[in-house]
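User: Sorry, folds how?
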Amino acid sequence: MRLQYECEPRPPIDFKIPLFTITCCIKLTLSILYDSFALCSCIAQFSRQIATFSRNLPPISFIMEVRRCAADMFKKNLSFKLIASLSALIMVVFLISGYVTYTVYLKMFTGEISKQFAKANEQAAARVEFQIQNMYKSTNYIVFHPYIEDILRRSAERAEDTFYNRLLDQDELTRLLNQISIDEPKLSSMYVYNTKGSGYFFENNSGTVIPLSDADYTAIKQSLEGSNGEIVWKAMRISSIESSGYKNVISAARYMKNKQQELYGILILFWDESLFGAMLDDLTKGENAQVVLLDDRNHVVYTNHKKDGYDLEALLQAADSQTVNIGGQPIYVSRSTTQGSHMTLISALSLQSFSQKSRGIFQIALYSGLVSTGLASLLIFFTGRRLLGPLRTLVAGMKKLRGGRFDTRIRISTQDELAFLGHSFNEMAANIESLVKEVYERKLHEREAELTALQAQLNPHFLYNTLDTIYMKLYLGEYDEQAAQLVLSLSGLLRYALQSPNTHTTVQDEIEHIQKYINIQSARIGGRLETFIHVDEGVEELPVIRLILQPLVENAFVHAFSQMSRICILRIKAYLQEPEVLCIEVSDNGKGMAEEQVEAVLQLQERRLDEAQEAPKRGGIGLKTVIRRVNLLYGPPYGLTILSEPDSGTTMKLVLPARTGEGGRLT
């Protein structure tokens, strides 16, 4: 029987995600992508600059240029300041903590190592003392043996020491000392001398040491002077049948005295160098350790000192449990003195390897600081763009406002302190825009009125002199034609001066006006005036300020040519100095001006316009009027320059913009 189960189908699960959540996720993703792209762009731009500098500059200049770029970024970029400052702070914290940890750890580790090393040194000294006491037992067996004493005394008392007698004594001593050779495997050789220093007997376990030389015996005998039967230790190099020809040994020598303290011989034992080296393995198994064993006379008995080892003299002078600097390395020195034999064991341990191992802690802290600094920099960069976004918008608006765009307004998206700054900026920009418009319109009206008044001014003396000249010619009944020309020139001057300031005026118009003025002045001077006028092609139709040349020419007649008896020469030249710069020069051969006079005239050009507002009223239409009008309309770099020397004439150069006049009117 088969059972069938029918299951109802499950309805599909409907995952409904709020639209607001989706929108926020999309905006957050786009924001992160935008910030990442901005960061990559900054890094790429800085890398390109560095690559360009590295190709084109030497190493020193390249480093200086990188420092300059970094300094500029630090000065001009607030985000960079935050990243650099906080990164430096994090790095300093990690460096300080790493250094403190490294220092504390090194101090604790060094202290513990020093304690253990000092304890090991004491234990090694105890083993050395135990070995020396065993040697005393062995040598006491020899020294106080009656048969050995009898053999040595007998050999010293014989009148003739034959070979047979020496051989008998040798065999008997060998039999007596054979046990010593067996018990002491590190004993290289043993020598027994009588009081005469002759008839020596020796025993050689290793078979590599040859009989003791007279020089070595004499040295050992001298070292025994002052001793009272105790063992005198000495590190020696004796002759050997080895390939090197010598062997390093440790000699242990003592006077042979009986119980009545009677001297009957000298005992010399030569031990293998490894006698103490084997006991000091715990101290010397490290490559950075060195030991020195001294006797009670501070003579070196044993040392593992190599040619490249520490300075032996420095080790001997170092105090106990002290860290000294030897060869640029920190060395810990420990001293231990045995109780019975008064031997001194000096051990030196280099702490440099421990310092190098401990630096790993500092390196870990340094690397952790670098990684943390990098992560913190990224976090600061991303969050900084969010926090400083309104500030950057405010700065951009201020730049536009500084550039003259007074209609600039910024969009405010926050409600914090930066929002208050944004509202204040918008209000300030609106107030500035309103004030600028008001001031501009008022200044415009004032300038037009002032220019009209300046243009309408005429020198009453010039008008009086001209009419007087015409009257005299008519009264005398001569030069009717010349008088008529004067009337026409004067009427032309008046008509030109009375025209509206808005009338379009060109260089040609000004030249024709000046020619009328020169005709009138020539009639007054007589035949002593020579005039040269030159206008370059294409300059005639350029617009200029109305009545701008008459004060310059008038200055020549009023000041330069006054009281002159020679020919008066006047030159007028108009040309383009640059495609957009018009120059008009008026020069004469008059009496000229001193440097102080020129500076007094041009001083107006350096002052503000409102300070010079009363200048035309004090001096009438003149050079100050020209300077005033050019400043009102154009400002720097346009104006008037004067070159003059006493008795050498004057050249006045008027620099104006070479404009077509289509964009606005010139008055």
Q: What stands out?
A: Residues 1-17, 606-621, 662-667 have pLDDT under 50 and may be disordered.
